[in-house]
Write a structure and sequence with these properties.
- This protein is an alpha+beta fold.
- The chain has two domains: about 5-135, Pnp Oxidase, Chain A (Roll); about 145-210.
- It has six helices and eight strands, in the order αβββαβαββββααα.
- The strands form two sheets. A six-stranded antiparallel barrel has the order 1-2-3-8-7-4. The chain has a two-stranded antiparallel ribbon with strand order 5-6.
- β2 and β3 form a beta hairpin.
- The radius of gyration is 17 Å and the shape is globular.
- It binds flavin mononucleotide.
- Flavin mononucleotide (FMN) binds near residues 38 and 57.
- Flavin mononucleotide binds near residues 36, 51, 53 and 154.
Length: about 210
């Protein structure tokens, strides 16, 4: 069982048994480091679980024996963007208790070891045990549609890549329309060039793939 305080802290950070929270998962296998956005839910025992689909670097590294992980918590869409399309921009720093590094600039870090892993037909399900949690206090912010729209566009983009890899062009085209909608939201809700550029680049990458 995870201890009560850990569970309390995880829930305060937004993790839940009833909904999926999006994090950047970092891991380390023999000096090779990777980071990717992943959904996390709490198991019945209150431990973070991830479902990782085959075909990703993360899947291969877990299957090959990666034993520790960090759930990097941030709502900054730029970090999600880097983790999908520009991994070389990510800045890492050391963790306290695990060999997997942290991504600099996040609001919370949940350092974990692997509790168990089960393999499905095209995915694995890993249950993680937190060993150290650190977070910064952040001031409340009014909801803005821009950041979620960028992260949503990235979800569609990664699904689109998968659909094309299995030859499902019609579903991929439908996802391209969703990405266009997200880009439209970003363009209308911010004048910040950096965020507009990120949304546009996701769309351009998606269009290049579907073409
Ligand atoms: C917000 C978000 C959440 C994601 N959640 C998952 C997930 O739970 N499981 C998964 O296998 N892929 C998920 N993905 C897709 C992976 O992050 C994506 O395939 C990524 O490119 C894998 O990187 P890698 O090959 O370096 O492991 C998610 C993507 C985004 C943008």
């Amino acid at each position: 069982m995870t201890d009560v305080n850990t569970m309390y802290t995880l829930e305060n950070l937004g993790f839940s048994k009833t909904q999926v929270s999006e994090v950047l998962l970092t891991l380390n296998l023999g000096g090779e480091v990777n980071a990717a956005p992943m959904g996390v839910r709490l198991s019945k025992r209150g431990l973070p679980i991830i479902r990782v689909y085959a075909g990703s670097r993360t899947y291969i590294m877990i299957k090959s024996g990666a034993k520790d992980y960090v759930l990097n918590v941030t709502s900054d869409p730029e970090v999600f963007y880097w983790a999908v399309l520009k991994k070389e921009y990510l800045r890492f720093k050391s963790s306290c208790r695990v060999t997997a590094p942290r991504i600099a600039g996040c609001q919370a870090y949940v350092e974990c070891v692997l509790e168990s892993v089960k393999f499905g037909r095209n995915y694995l399900r890993a249950e993680l045990r937190p060993v150290y949690i650190e977070y910064v206090k952040v001031k409340p912010k009014a909801y803005c549609r821009v950041q979620p729209a960028i992260i949503e566009a990235l979800v569609y983009f990664t699904k689109l890549k998968y659909l094309l890899s299995v030859g499902d062009l019609s579903k991929a085209k439908a996802l391209l329309e969703n990405i266009k909608h997200c880009e439209n939201v970003v363009r209308h809700c911010t004048t910040q060039r950096k965020l507009r550029k990120i949304a546009k680049e996701i769309l351009v990458h998606a269009e290049e793939l579907v073409r």
